[in-house]
Design goal:
about 110 residues; alpha+beta; Transferase(Phosphotransferase), domain 1; three-stranded antiparallel sheet; 3 strands; globular
Amino acid sequence: MELLHGSDLAEVRARHPGGLSLGTMLDVSRQTAEALHAAHHQGIIHRALKPANLFLQGDGRVKICDFGIARDPDATSALTLSGHVVGTPAYMSPEQCQDRPIDVRSDLYL
């Protein structure tokens, strides 16, 4: 596992109660979208995207962390049992909350 230096977006937001600059948020959003595109291109859905899983490194690069419940939607077996919702409800897409089939769009719901 790569050793990262910096803070996750939840911690950064807590230190800036007035909000982050528009430029910072646009940069974080762009980098996150590019990283998700790469994961989705490989057939991986993160399923737990939230500020605590976006790590902002000291040099400005963003890393998506915690692929613990990520899955390939075409896999014959899932990491979770049907009927058991896994994730952080406040950040889950409606279809994920309802244990319905998900696709890459579920990672874009925030």
